[in-house]
Every structure is written in structure tokens, then in C-alpha cells.
Amino acid sequence: GDYLLMMADHIFEAAILARLAGQGSADRGVTLAIDRRVASELVDPDDATWVSLDSAGFIRTIGKGLELYDAVDCGAFLATPELAEAIAGAIRDGAPGSLSNGMQRLADAGRAATMDIGAAWWLDVDEPRFHAIAERQAPLHLAELYAGAAS
Asked: How would you class 133 by CB atoms within 10 Å of its CB: exposed for 0-12, middle for 13-18, buried for 19 or more?
């Protein structure tokens, strides 16, 4: 069935994941949470996976090093079994079989949708600079989690 897939080194406001979980539809094999704030100080341009979109908000291209892009991949997906099938198909075609390979394959088939997170907060914390930002900002953006931990 459908499942949420999240990068282990990313943190998200709960609202992002709650909205994403409700994005299932027959017209998509995967839905990716995206952020259009590509120039944000919270985005590491050297590490980001960039996304180019079509006019309907479906992924045209996805990957590191894209020169033309509309958004950044937030690292949260509502996936269907089609994603694993797409990764396996990419491997059969000689690709390494990365998540981006599978996503691009679904994009090529018109099956990779997006959900714009708007002003919601997320962060990739795999660099020391972003870990420090997370320590400062997470309590402000994840207040419901911190309140529960304190009780």
C-alpha cells in the first residue's frame, strides 16, 4: 500500500507529514513534498536535490546539480508500490537504482506529483551548520513535540 518515506537526516513540522499523508490519488505513483523557497538560508545548494515542475505541478526532472529548477526536494514522500517498481526498472536499464532514478522514471511516466509545503518548516541536518540551526529553530517549529516530551 501507500507509505510515507522520509530521509533520516531531515526534520519536518508535523503539518507537512499530515498533509502529505492525505495526498494519495490514482493519478500518481508518488507525491514529493517540495519547497519553492530555493534561496532560503535553510537550503544547502551544494547538497540539495532540485526539482523542475510542469504546469500541473508534476515533476519534470529531479536530481542534484540541475541548472534549471522550480523547487527543492524536502525529503518526504507519499509513495506507492510504483516507486519500488520504478527503482527496479531503473536498475534493469543500467542505472544505479537510486531514489532519484526511480523518481525520474515516475516523472517520465507522468506519475510523480508534488505537494508545495508553503511556509512550513523543514531542515536537512546532515551538515554541522544545519545541525546548529536545527538546535536553535526546532523548539520553535516543533513545539507540540517538545511539549509532549516535557510532560
From this structure: middle
Name the DSSP letter for residue 91. H
In the prediction, which pLDDT does 145 show? 58
Residues 6+ apart with CB under 8 A from 133: 41, 42, 123, 125
CB 33 within 8 A of CB 77: yes
| CB-count burial class (<10 Å; 0-12, 13-18, 19+) for 111 | buried
Q: Is the pTM of this model over 0.90?
A: yes
> 31 vs 36, 58, 107, 116, CA distance in Å?
15, 9, 10, 10
* Mean pLDDT (the chain, rounded): 93
pLDDT at residue 36 tops 60? yes
